[in-house]
Amino acid sequence: MNTFLDHQNWRYATKKFDSSKKISNQDFELLLEAIRLSSSSYGLQPYKILIIENQDLRAKIQQAAWGQSQVVDASHLLIFANQTDISDAQIDEFFENTSKTRGIEIESLAGYQGFMKSKINELSADAKNIWNSKQTYLALANLMNAAAELKIDVTPMEGFSPADVNEILGLKELGLNASLLAPIGYRHSEDATQHYKKVRKSKEELFITI
């Protein structure tokens, strides 16, 4: 646990990446697996992770992110894009996967399958979109924790225009919405913010015991 806390104290929202330093394929695959193993409500993982390798697209996304250099200078750029809806068919696919993975009869899951559909179908379209977007933050947290262990920097970014990124990547047609940007790579030696002390609330301010 002390090591985990050391990693959390090491990490920060990197403002300037060293564009000459690239993440190894082995480490990158580990980060992707950390995202894949992330928790999500019901285990549905109602999102896609876009790996943006095309530099022209990254330049366009940078403009949608108000010119922030991390988008183009980081080794890799990930976009967490939530599904805007969850259909019965997608829930059925989840239970088929559960049945296959765990080696159990899908009929034994029918009760929970029906319950899940009833709870999700009662949500409005806007509520589904918001709920799905929240799931991307859980996946981002797994990425950030795994990256810190590898001494790889991640900048979680909400500072961009989702509508513009959706248009650039044609996400609306895919039933997706850009929720978060995550440039990942290595901090530049000239990034002064890496030396700032971490500012957080004290335990007395943050926690309430009832």
Automatic annotation (TrEMBL):
PANTHER family according to UniProt: NAD(P)H NITROREDUCTASE YDGI-RELATED (PTHR43673), NITROREDUCTASE (PTHR43673:SF2)
Pfam name, any one: Nitroreductase
Nitroreductase domain boundaries: 10-186
Alphabetically ordered keywords of this record: Flavoprotein, FMN, NADP, Oxidoreductase
Domain of life: Bacteria
Cofactor: FMN
SUPFAM superfamilies the UniProt entry points to: FMN-dependent nitroreductase-like (SSF55469)
Protein name: NAD(P)H-dependent oxidoreductase
Gene Ontology MF term list: oxidoreductase activity
Lineage, opening ranks: Bacteria, Pseudomonadati, Bacteroidota, Flavobacteriia, Flavobacteriales
Family: Belongs to the nitroreductase family.
